[in-house]
Write a structure and sequence with these properties.
This is Carbon-nitrogen hydrolase family protein. By secondary structure, the protein is α/β, with parallel strands linked by helices. The chain has 2 domains: 293 residues, 4-Layer Sandwich (Nitrilase/N-carbamoyl-D-aminoacid amidohydrolase); 37 residues, no CATH class. The chain has 8 helices and 13 strands. A 6-stranded mixed sheet has the order 5-4-3-2-1-13. The radius of gyration is 24 Å and the shape is globular. The two termini are 43 Å apart.
Length: 366
């Protein structure tokens, strides 16, 4: 892992309301706030869950027919990795000289698929889209909106301010997913959410947070602090914000389950909240951090070092992307070596020529 990383850096959470279901308007607003972050010296900027072009708060409030129409509209305004909008965002990132973690609805790039994913797009300072993360398991009835992400996206990557990773919403509660990023050397973590809420007894009974006092029952507040402490990571937690205005194209009452009232926080590796939670406003939340904050926490509790017991507990992480078509008879099977042919000949008491002939016949039959 590279050690020539910055000793101090600034994290930013862009708690910004999208132009709902409007790709062009959201793109313009995204670039303007990236520019603001650049002016404030932000090194890593995080936008909320599915900020582009908005979280589907309508999913529980409409008929199936209306749901279908809105799914079509959402897909038409979501991002695809080959969209010109991705290049435009990259140009804004390069001008701002920052790293970007953008929450987006993503249109699948697999041939023949129109499935949407709840994704994070990671851009480096040059403006290149370096990788993405798709939420592995959409929560509850989100499964009617998004597909399940691929194992290959559960990873991190190096930047000039530290190794960067990210998870979406309840993934930040998933013990093994968190452990996977920690084991991959994560140092800076982006946690994105659809808002901030008060829980009334259980996760299925929650309402929009009215103020930061909602942290007493909102699971996000302890989750991001514990994530920071247990992995010794700097955490930029960015939550969605929506005003009370009814978006264009929607009717009163269609945007249900409106928990999008902010709640973003910036947390150091000791679990100390250095900024936020910012509730009830559109804002760019920033805070400066020092790598010694991580070193000091790890001196006491190092989850990847002196406190680890891999002989007692370890983790298996799968990678790769499942594909619909598999070649069960690849042409690049290794040829039978002379040494292996000789071994088989001796083992079965036949000539080397016989072994080679059988091997050739098997290869020809495919």
């Amino acid at each position: 892992m590279p050690r020539d990383v910055a000793e101090t850096f600034t994290l930013g959470a862009a708690q910004i309301e999208p132009e709902y279901h409007d790709a062009e308007g959201t793109l313009d607003k995204t670039c303007r706030w990236i520019e603001r972050a650049g002016d404030r010296g932000v090194d890593v900027l995080v936008f909320p869950e599915t900020y582009f072009p908005g979280y589907p708060y309508w999913r529980r409030s409409t008929s199936i027919a209306r749901w279908t129409d809105l799914m079509v509209d959402l897909g038409a305004n979501s991002l695809h990795v080959d969209d010109d909008a991705v290049e435009t965002i990259g140009e804004a990132v390069a001008d701002a000289n920052c790293h970007l973690v953008l929450g987006t609805n993503e249109v699948d790039d697999r041939r023949g698929s129109e499935t949407l994913y709840n994704s994070l797009f990671f851009f480096d300072r040059s403006g290149e889209l370096v990788r993405r993360h798709r939420k592995l398991m959409p929560t509850h009835d989100e499964r009617t909106i998004w597909g399940r992400g691929d194992p290959e996206h559960l990873t991190t990557h190096d930047t000039d301010v530290g190794r960067l990773g990210g998870l979406v919403c309840y993934e930040n509660h998933m013990t093994l997913s968190k452990a996977a990023l920690c084991a991959d050397g994560e140092e800076i973590h982006a946690a994105v959410w659809p808002g901030f809420w008060e829980q009334h007894g259980h996760p299925g009974d929650k309402t929009r947070a009215d103020s930061a006092a909602a942290r007493d029952t909102c699971d996000i507040y302890p989750a991001v602090r514990e994530y920071a402490f247990e992995t010794q990571s700097f955490v930029a937690s960015c939550s969605a914000y929506m005003s009370d205005d009814v978006p264009e194209g929607f009717e009163e009452g269609e945007i249900g389950f409106g928990v999008g009232n902010g709640g973003s926080m910036l947390v150091n590796p000791a679990g100390i909240v250095k900024a936020g939670p910012a509730v009830g406003e559109e804002t760019l939340l920033t805070a400066e951090f020092d790598r010694d904050e991580r070193r000091a926490t790890k001196a006491y509790f190092d989850a990847m070092g002196h406190y680890a017991r891999w002989d007692a507990v370890n983790l298996e992480v799968r990678d790769g992307r499942p594909e619909p078509v598999h070649d069960h008879h690849p042409d690049d099977r290794p040829a039978l070596s002379a040494a292996r042919a000789q071994t088989l000949a001796e083992e079965y008491d036949v000539s080397v020529e016989t072994v080679e002939a059988v091997a050739e016949a098997v290869a020809d039959d495919g």
